[in-house]
């Protein structure tokens, strides 16, 4: 089969009439080659009155070929030149009519705005969105509290099984990765500490540093960042998918409160799991630190332990543990708020899940800052 | 129609298992050029499985599938692409790419398979959209801004983007109101008449079966039970077919293929 061709059969520009003959295969594969032929044929010719294309020798025609013919006809007709096709096979008549019926009236693209205005506009919208977010967070905390209150009054309404299920997924299943990461963090801290403290012979103070840092700050922060990435994102994705499939609406129409059924068990689970994970994580970090101090820094385990006893007090541990449930609450609330804001599309689910992780990690660190100020002012 | 009786799809003794459940157990089926084949069967009988196996989304255990006379086994990537370029698939939910505009969705296969100018591509995308009965304005919209019927039409425009020779339709009228469903049937009929494609249509819509199909194949117990035109179906004494075509929802004789 030959590719599509378009040749001049007869006619001179002076006489005002031209006949062209189309032949070969006018299909999508050849459209790239045919288009230049059409463009060449539709160059403006002065005093052209009429033009006809003989299509009898077209072996195959599809919508691409038909549109290219139609485009040529339209170009000529726009110049008030009579244009038509002759000899079209009956098989292709329907197709040609379909293509002929297309109006091709594409509305112009929306105008681009001045870039300064656009920037200001987007900054403004972001600030409004931030404010809306804070309101939504406050609302969610409020509804979770009321739901919690209702459940306290009517304990039979509490979804205990659901909570245990989430507790298993957020707590138990997260334990291995949390232990692994915190051991590594403790080890790295100790190694860096020893490396630098050794220069002025203060090796032993690495125990103080690891102990205080891990118990007060790093244990809980690392655990919260891991949980925000691991469980907060899955909360958002689950709730978002349920929102997309109208499961949340179904619950509401059956007279259930989605906050009570879906969100309260999740938030309680995370609030219980994070302090437990923080405890294990901190222990693992101390273990990792101790191991490196022994193997790399030559601080024997018994020395490490006795130094640790002097360096930290129960309060150091309590400060870290006290922060854990509040941070967990922030992660859970942010994840659930984002999940419920998912709209119809898969893209929106992805965007909300990302938002959930970014916002909860950000808020956890901000909250840690507030705690630091608070504990400093009460002298802990 | 179907005068040449040239088969474009030949399925022979096809066996497909999903998680070691035998779903298709020796399916043999021909689809001819220029015909609309309706494919019916109980929910969960494996209608979609057959479609998905033919287009290569599911692996088969035994049997052969020939498309355009070429066995699909052992094709290299280029040969496979040549075949894939010649069929179009309309998924049940439309399966439009939600991150792309309607226009980009329709242009997507063209961009991949054809070497044509951007201007021609835009024009063709709009032509396809208008061919399926949409206005050019939808070109810049996103799938999330469209109604269910419009999504199906855009998905059809995308399936038709490369002027395929075989069109697979998976429940094209499900989820459409009767008026839209009727329009969709008519649309498929006109498109089929203008382009002489073979259409393989999985459907539960009796009206669609009456209105559009030249031939109907019935999937019963993992095999093709009966094939024939609508009269054969109506005359069949097979209990499931009897229940299907003479049941409460069937309105025999009210519609005929026009």
* End-to-end Cα distance of chain B: 13 Å
Number of DSSP helical runs of chain B: 9
The CATH architecture of the largest domain in chain B can be named as: 3-Layer(aba) Sandwich
Please describe the biggest sheet of chain B, giving its number of strands, its sense, and whether it closes into a barrel. 6 strands, mixed
The residue fraction in helices of chain B comes out at: 25-40%
Low-confidence parts of chain B: none
How would you describe what is shown here?
The complex is a heterodimer of chains A (380) and B (258). Chain A has 2 domains: 5-101, STAS domain (Transcription Regulator spoIIAA); 159-377, no CATH class. Chain A has 12 helices and 4 strands; from the N terminus they run ββαβαβαααααααααα. Chain A has helices at 28-41, 63-78, 90-101, 115-153, 160-172, 175-197, 205-244, 247-253, 258-295, 301-311, 314-340, 346-377, and strands at residues 5-10, 17-26, 50-61, 82-86. Chain A has a 4-stranded mixed β-sheet with strand order 1-2-3-4. With 258 residues, chain B is of the alpha/beta class. Chain B has helices at residues 47-54, 77-84, 102-113, 118-131, 148-159, 178-195, 206-212, 230-235, 239-246; strands spanning 7-18, 21-32, 36-41, 62-67, 70-71, 87-90, 166-170, 198-202, 215-220, 223-228. In chain B, the strands form 2 sheets. Chain B has a 6-stranded mixed β-sheet with strand order 6-7-8-3-9-10. In chain B, strands 2-1-4-5 form a 4-stranded antiparallel β-sheet, covered by helices on one side. In chain B, a hairpin with a 2-residue loop joins strand 9 (215-220) and strand 10 (223-228). Chain B is globular. Chain B starts with 6 loop residues before the first strand and ends in a 12-residue tail after the last helix. Classes of the chains: A alpha/beta (380), B alpha/beta (258). At the A-B interface, helix 1, helix 2 and helix 3 of A face helix 4 and helix 6 of B.
